[in-house]
Amino acid sequence: MTIFIPTPLRPHAGGQDAVEVSAATIAQALEALTHAHPGLRKHLFTAEGKLRAFVNLYLNDEDVRYLPAKEATAVTSADTLSIIPSIAGGLPPRQ
Amino acid sequence: MGILHLSRTVYEAVRAHGEETYPDECCGALLGIPTPEGWRVEVAVRAGNTRTDSAHNRYQIAPLELVKIEREARGKGLGIAGFYHSHPDHPAQCSPTDLAEAHWLECSYVITAVAQGKAAVTNSFLLAGVSEEDKHFEQETIQVEE
């Protein structure tokens, strides 16, 4: 499958915007990705090995958090996985 | 100080968006080409603000919208250089919330102050640092190119 790498993580993936991996599940795909590019691990996972809260994963157009099997969801070579850090911000409450 | 290169069209589009959504915050993505002198932004893509519960002082871009924006950008040979949003009746400076919720290291966050409905100062801040733990904003010069 193809994993799309967002701009800030490309320096940790050899400068590539996409990485091809062979995997049967999303979790295996992430493992293959971080095995090939170990520098990505700390950006994607906490020290406890959990996906960082601000990292969104989309299998094609589906939010992995809402898939019944989540990261254990089966994938095929035709699938794409997008890694998208969240984008938000704002102002303090008005006085 | 780094430099963010914006085309005149992008610069005006970002500011106009802030005026249109006033008194709410606007937001969008900046697509461009990396150069040795920094990003050259060619396109500003408007995004919906999903924080409809508090749009006057919060913005959030739906990740799926960004997946689609990035897909389209890739097809045009462009990448995500950063994001923009507006600060209605507030200076064009990064807030603590802006920093806490910024996760695109080495990307630019452009902020336009919109005072009483009119675009005022536009600033850009690079999210610098090597990890989530030491990230910080560094102001950069906006160079508008005709």
List keywords for this structure.
heterodimer; A: 95 residues; alpha+beta; Ubiquitin-like (UB roll); five-stranded mixed beta sheet; 16% helix; 24% strand; globular; B: 146 residues; Cytidine Deaminase, domain 2; 3 helices; 8 strands; 22% helix
Distance between the first and last residues' Cα of chain A: 50 Å
Main-sheet strand order of chain B equals: 1-3-2-5-6-7-8
Q: Largest interface, and how many residues on either side?
A: A-B, 27 and 40 residues
**Helix percentage range of chain A:** 10-25%
Estimate the strand proportion of chain A.
15-25%
Q: Which quaternary structure do these chains form? A: heterodimer
User: What's the structural domain tally of chain A?
Assistant: 1
Distance between the termini of chain B: 21 Å
Structural class per helix/strand content of chain B? alpha/beta
Number of helices of chain A: 2
Give average pLDDT of chain B, whole number.
Answer: 95
Shape of chain B: globular
For the record, the CATH class of chain B is Alpha Beta
The fraction of residues assigned to DSSP E strands of chain B is over 45%
What does the secondary structure layout of this molecule look like, with pairings?
The complex is a heterodimer of chains A (95) and B (146).
Chain A: E1 2-4, E2 18-20, H1 26-36, H2 41-44, E3 55-59, E4 62-63, E5 80-85, E6 87-90
Parallel strand pairs in A: 1-5
Antiparallel strand pairs in A: 1-2, 3-4, 3-5
Chain B: E1 3-7, H1 8-21, E2 27-35, E3 38-47, E4 58-61, H2 63-75, E5 79-88, H3 96-100, E6 108-115, E7 118-128, E8 136-145
Parallel strand pairs in B: 1-3, 1-8, 5-6
Antiparallel strand pairs in B: 2-3, 2-5, 6-7, 7-8
Commentary on this structure:
The complex is a heterodimer of chains A (95) and B (146). Chain A has 95 residues and is an alpha+beta fold. Chain A has one domain (2-85): Beta-grasp domain (Ubiquitin-like (UB roll), Roll), CATH 3.10.20. Helices cover 16% and strands 24% of the residues of chain A. Chain A has 2 helices and 6 strands. Chain A has helices spanning 26-36, 41-44, and strands at 2-4, 18-20, 55-59, 62-63, 80-85, 87-90. A 5-stranded mixed β-sheet of chain A has the order 2-1-5-3-4, with helices on one face. The radius of gyration of chain A is 14 Å and the shape is globular. The relative contact order of chain A is 0.24. The mean pLDDT of chain A is 95. Chain B has helices at residues 8-21, 63-75, 96-100, and strands at 3-7, 27-35, 38-47, 58-61, 79-88, 108-115, 118-128, 136-145. Chain B has a 7-stranded mixed β-barrel with strand order 1-3-2-5-6-7-8. Chain B has a single domain (3-141), classed as Cytidine Deaminase, domain 2 (3-Layer(aba) Sandwich). Chain B has 3 helices and 8 strands. In chain B, helix 3 links the parallel strand 5 and strand 6 (108-115). Chain B is α/β, with parallel strands linked by helices. Chains A and B meet through strand 3, strand 5 and strand 6 of A and strand 4, helix 2, strand 5 and helix 3 of B.
